[in-house]
Specification:
Chain lengths: 500, 392
Amino acid sequence: MSLSMATPAFLIERNLDRCIHCQVCVRQCANEAHGYDHEEQRVYSDDMRCVNCHRCVVLCPTRALSVRQFPLEFRANANWTAEVIHNIYLQAATGGILLTGMGNDRPYPIYWDHMLINASQVTNPSIDPLREPMELKTFLGRKPEKIVIENGRLKEALPPQLELELPVMFSAMSFGSISLNAMKSLALAAEAEGTYYNTGEGGLHKDLYPLGHRTIVQVASGRFGVHPDYLAAGAAIEIKIGQGAKPGIGGHLPGEKVGREVSETRMIPEGTDALSPAPHHDIYSIEDLRQLIYSLKEATNYSKPVSVKIAAVHNVAAIASGIARAGADIIAIDGYRGGTGATPLRTRDHVGIPIEFALAAVDSRLRDEGIRNQVSLVVAGSIRHSADIVKAVALGADAVYIGSAALIALGCHMCQKCYTGKCNWGIATQDPNLTKRLNPEIGAKRAANLLKAWKHEIKEMLGGMGINALESLRGNRLMLRGIGLTDRELNILGIKAAGE
Amino acid sequence: MVGNDGWARPWELQGNHRREGSKRIPSGCAIAGMINRKGRTMSGVDAIQSIALMHDRSNGLGGGFAAYGIYPEFPEHYAFHLFFDDHKAREQTESFLNQHFNIELGGPIPTRKVVGISGAPLIWRYFAKPKLEQLRVAEMKEDDFVVNMVMFINERLDGAYVFSSGKNMGAFKGVGYPEDIGEFYRLDEYRGYIWTAHGRFPTNTPGWWGGAHPFTLLDLSVVHNGEISSYGANRRFLEMFGYRCTLQTDTEVMTYIFDLLLRRQGLPLETAVKAVAAPFWSTIARMPQAQREVLTAIRTVYSSLLVNGPFSIVLGSSQGIMALNDRVKLRPLVAATKGDLLYVASEESAIREICPKPERVWSPRGGEPVIGMLEDAMPKAVPAPPVTVCHL
């Protein structure tokens, strides 16, 4: 065994004037960064174990704790940064792939922040959402080219649609990657606010069947928990081809997270690894996808919209066009900043493209081909606030998925250690001592509050533009102007520069 | 600039001769419309007088009229009204037209000199029918063929612009105050059973006559007051159906929306109105089930055709007129009736100017159409848009 070259990432600062050695921090830290010395009757810390999740800081009754970057520095080098060096030490010691959680944290340009929203002045009036109706209702699903009315009635019923009271849904997060309490929180919030949550690839826990009408049930490459009742329970079915945090690779839920409940829900033996293959092994091409889409429609008697989720990759516009033609009712696109419970670091940080470009390219391509109205577009991959949503809709999205933002509402502190299963906030863990920290009713309230707040903000911005229904913003790129973008970037986004 | 006689008049050159469409220009406006539901015709004097009263709602940068029933001697011919920049453009266009149409009669539209109107392009008119062999080659219905030809001329033939293409109807428009435009086109000499009028207040200085209103396609005409906040959404939806919005004006978009819904998709006028000025979801929720289903379907399928932001429009067709406000009524619109006559205008005074004692005057609610259709089936020039409602 060679010398370990690991050094702490974070420094735990304990104010000894304030610390009363009550051991709250010791009990709260699943990483065992805090300990209690019974002989000396005092609390101590081990910086090496700290992941900077703030659990101890937030719960410390005397505000004695703080955490910051460990001050140790290498000789300044713009190329060989501390992170690069540390990762090499780690791989040299283990021979393994670097793992991480949550989304891409590299300083790539954030194109949302290079777009500005319009408002009305003089030539048309802005609308005050506190005084006038302001509509965010959105339908997701296949739309026919026209309707036919006979004797005042619809000649043919519309294809099945998801009805959203605001254009935001909770993104796919599986039972296994997150706790049952986290799932319940999101499901209840979706019910309260008139939107949907997504099971991810982990099946639907029996406790959540009563909320099936708020559930998008996913069918992924591992087919975990997929059976007729599962398909029948959901409001829509989503075929997961890929996700933004790990385009092109499969998933791996380690056996230690597969306890009795997860095992039952996923229909796999307890304690076994849940391995999702990189591709669906019955989908090697677009015509295969069509077969799966129609198999699922047949299985559910054409009563539910079928969504296909892909990661935003270079050729996303052509792929999306193929998916629309293959019969999908909804296309969900996950950008390269999308989060995850576990992903290889290099894949997360270097594969895929920004959701802003993917969305603009897909919307434009589908319009060029005259099929945009046949499918709904849902985008994901780091929607951080209501202005991102307004911009996404103006670029052409019907709705957005939020994952990271929803978990942050539940208490996630973005420590990026989801893959360790030691989430001190009770979210990305199956440890009953940790999951009980998240009360699903309180979680639901917080997630619902986030949606409510964003709903108000979206209405304010819509009214400012003189628009009182969200659909009038959809694809209305005249409502956006670019700032600090090249001509080519403006061109891809299909927007003008500020001042034009 | 070239006069109607074809001689260059450089002293009339104005600042901006580019066609409209290079950028988007919001406008405020005055609109007016009237129909005799018995189909009796009236001269253009009333329409001019009505729109003239609202002088201050326009700023001299655009005015125009649409009139129906004015060419009873050519009821089956498409009456093409064209602007040409010069005679070269005219000759080129005429040879194109001759290739595809049998032209019964062609020539300059009579005008008179009016103080305040300058910089007029060549303004010609042709009564024509598509050549049967061309229809066969194109494998198109007649109306689609004509629309395609109009689009082709407007996009591809430099210096030529078709601003009216219906049967037994015509648009007359230009840069100037509407009353001066009416005088210029000698509209007092025409008689029609429907007149619509427009005075424009653009927030920019477009110098191009084609940009004035009404905007027309086949026998559909639209005069419009407003600035549509949903323009980008509406336009991009229409583009999927092959429309190209080259003028970047709200009126153009509005015309194409109704062309798509009424002519191409064959929807009833009421349904089209519900798409453009949709009832709120809270209203729909209170409707009986069958109606709720229809409205929900309209709002779901045609959500991108909801016209958002302030507008009032008068839609003209050979069968009648329809006046409509946006669903929260952010622009003025007044209607009045007297006998067989229905009047609509931006201001009540514009109606009383020509009809001092109307029997009924009202201000229609937002999203509530005022529909005035001809009572008898007049000899129909164009396969009529399948309008089914008569609301008066």
